[in-house]
Design goal:
single chain; 116 residues; mainly beta; four-stranded antiparallel beta sheet; two-stranded antiparallel sheet; 2 helices; 8 strands; disordered C terminus
Protein backbone atom coordinates (compact mmCIF):
# COMPACT_ATOMS: atom_id res chain seq x y z
CA UNK A 1 0.00 0.00 0.00
CA UNK A 2 1.44 3.36 -1.00
CA UNK A 3 0.76 6.53 0.99
CA UNK A 4 0.80 9.71 -1.09
CA UNK A 5 1.38 13.22 0.33
CA UNK A 6 -0.98 16.06 -0.68
CA UNK A 7 1.72 17.35 -3.06
CA UNK A 8 1.53 14.04 -4.95
CA UNK A 9 4.83 12.57 -3.74
CA UNK A 10 5.10 9.13 -2.21
CA UNK A 11 5.45 9.23 1.58
CA UNK A 12 5.93 5.53 2.35
CA UNK A 13 5.00 2.02 1.30
CA UNK A 14 3.54 -0.51 3.75
CA UNK A 15 2.14 -3.99 3.61
CA UNK A 16 -1.42 -4.14 2.28
CA UNK A 17 -4.63 -5.43 3.84
CA UNK A 18 -2.90 -7.62 6.42
CA UNK A 19 -1.36 -4.81 8.43
CA UNK A 20 -3.81 -2.08 7.45
CA UNK A 21 -6.55 -4.34 8.74
CA UNK A 22 -5.12 -4.01 12.24
CA UNK A 23 -6.25 -0.38 12.20
CA UNK A 24 -9.90 -1.26 11.47
CA UNK A 25 -11.66 -1.04 14.83
CA UNK A 26 -15.26 -2.23 15.38
CA UNK A 27 -17.40 0.62 16.67
CA UNK A 28 -14.75 3.26 15.86
CA UNK A 29 -14.06 2.94 12.11
CA UNK A 30 -16.60 3.88 9.45
CA UNK A 31 -16.93 3.02 5.75
CA UNK A 32 -15.04 6.14 4.63
CA UNK A 33 -12.05 5.44 6.89
CA UNK A 34 -11.90 1.77 5.82
CA UNK A 35 -12.06 2.87 2.18
CA UNK A 36 -9.17 5.31 2.72
CA UNK A 37 -7.13 2.71 4.59
CA UNK A 38 -7.66 -0.43 2.48
CA UNK A 39 -9.10 0.81 -0.80
CA UNK A 40 -12.13 -0.59 -2.56
CA UNK A 41 -13.15 -4.20 -2.15
CA UNK A 42 -13.67 -6.15 -5.37
CA UNK A 43 -17.35 -5.95 -6.40
CA UNK A 44 -17.63 -9.75 -6.55
CA UNK A 45 -16.43 -9.95 -2.92
CA UNK A 46 -18.91 -7.33 -1.71
CA UNK A 47 -22.13 -8.69 -0.26
CA UNK A 48 -25.15 -7.70 1.81
CA UNK A 49 -26.62 -9.83 4.60
CA UNK A 50 -30.26 -8.78 4.63
CA UNK A 51 -31.24 -10.61 7.84
CA UNK A 52 -28.62 -8.68 9.84
CA UNK A 53 -28.76 -5.51 7.71
CA UNK A 54 -24.98 -5.71 7.16
CA UNK A 55 -22.99 -4.78 4.08
CA UNK A 56 -19.80 -6.86 3.87
CA UNK A 57 -16.55 -5.91 2.14
CA UNK A 58 -13.76 -8.42 1.58
CA UNK A 59 -10.10 -8.22 0.55
CA UNK A 60 -7.68 -11.01 -0.37
CA UNK A 61 -4.02 -10.75 0.64
CA UNK A 62 -0.99 -12.86 1.55
CA UNK A 63 -0.68 -13.30 5.29
CA UNK A 64 2.58 -13.34 7.24
CA UNK A 65 3.06 -17.03 6.29
CA UNK A 66 2.67 -16.07 2.60
CA UNK A 67 -0.63 -17.96 2.35
CA UNK A 68 -3.78 -16.65 0.75
CA UNK A 69 -6.03 -15.03 3.37
CA UNK A 70 -9.21 -12.97 3.36
CA UNK A 71 -10.10 -9.97 5.47
CA UNK A 72 -13.82 -9.26 5.98
CA UNK A 73 -15.40 -6.10 7.36
CA UNK A 74 -19.10 -6.09 8.27
CA UNK A 75 -20.80 -2.71 8.63
CA UNK A 76 -23.96 -1.56 10.35
CA UNK A 77 -26.10 -0.43 7.40
CA UNK A 78 -27.77 2.41 9.35
CA UNK A 79 -24.68 4.05 10.84
CA UNK A 80 -21.95 2.90 8.43
CA UNK A 81 -19.75 1.95 11.40
CA UNK A 82 -17.73 -1.26 11.47
CA UNK A 83 -19.65 -3.91 13.36
CA UNK A 84 -17.17 -6.78 12.96
CA UNK A 85 -13.80 -7.29 11.27
CA UNK A 86 -11.96 -10.58 10.98
CA UNK A 87 -9.32 -12.42 9.00
CA UNK A 88 -9.76 -15.96 7.71
CA UNK A 89 -7.84 -18.44 5.66
CA UNK A 90 -8.51 -18.31 1.91
CA UNK A 91 -9.23 -21.94 1.04
CA UNK A 92 -8.53 -22.50 -2.62
CA UNK A 93 -8.07 -25.88 -4.25
CA UNK A 94 -7.12 -27.11 -7.68
CA UNK A 95 -7.17 -24.49 -10.44
CA UNK A 96 -8.42 -21.80 -8.05
CA UNK A 97 -11.66 -23.64 -7.22
CA UNK A 98 -12.80 -22.96 -3.65
CA UNK A 99 -12.96 -25.99 -1.39
CA UNK A 100 -16.50 -26.26 -0.07
CA UNK A 101 -16.54 -29.75 1.34
CA UNK A 102 -14.72 -33.01 0.98
CA UNK A 103 -15.96 -36.40 -0.07
CA UNK A 104 -14.14 -39.72 -0.24
CA UNK A 105 -13.12 -41.10 -3.62
CA UNK A 106 -13.45 -44.84 -4.34
CA UNK A 107 -9.76 -45.18 -3.44
CA UNK A 108 -10.33 -43.56 -0.01
CA UNK A 109 -8.74 -40.18 -0.89
CA UNK A 110 -10.58 -36.97 -0.07
CA UNK A 111 -11.65 -34.94 -3.10
CA UNK A 112 -12.99 -31.38 -3.21
CA UNK A 113 -16.74 -31.14 -3.81
CA UNK A 114 -16.03 -29.20 -7.01
CA UNK A 115 -14.53 -32.40 -8.49
CA UNK A 116 -17.73 -34.43 -8.00
Amino acid sequence: MAFIAPAGRRQRIEEGAGYGALRVKPGKSDQASVLRLLGRSQPKWTNYFQACDEPVWEWRFCDSWNHLARFDVLFDARTGMVRTAYQRQGLVGWNGVALRGLRKSPGGRSLPSAVR
